[in-house]
Write a structure and sequence with these properties.
Blueprint (H helix, E strand, L loop, with lengths): L5 H15 L12 E6 L4 E5 L12 H11 L5 E7 L8 H10 L5 E5 L5 E6 H4 L11
Parallel strand pairs: 3-4
Antiparallel strand pairs: 1-2, 1-3, 4-5
The structure holds tetrahydrodeoxyuridine.
Length: about 140
Amino acid sequence: MTMLTDEIKQALIDQALLYQKRAYAPYSNYAVGAAVLADDMQIYGGANIENSAYPSGLCAERVAIFHAISEANKKILAVVVATKNGGSPCGSCRQVMREFGAPDMPIILVDEEGDIVLESTLEGMLPYSFGPEDLI
Ligand code: THU
């Protein structure tokens, strides 16, 4: 697994908690914050952003990843997700992580206190996945 220093891990957790507070989730009342470490070694955050036309909203993980990629990064190195209960990323977010992350990329879930609920990897959370190489 890609090794994260304690300092970077804590910075990712702090950023995920910050973005959780920025969630726009008036319909579900389920606030999610995400932070990704990108290949420029910067941290990019995202919050879930809902919409009155429900399917038009987007999960925090994808907001954070698209934030990182639209700042010209090509890879993500780690993902932290913060929710009130350590909730797990949905399948669509796992697939987007798969596009930009290596199989051993750490995925860390924390609760709203910032306590770690689960530490896994991309491959652990999305085994037998489909990715860019399958199209070659
Ligand atoms: N949500 C996320 O932001 N990430 C996930 O992986 C699971 C679900 C959001 C979507 C919606 O705004 C709310 O949580 C309830 O589903």
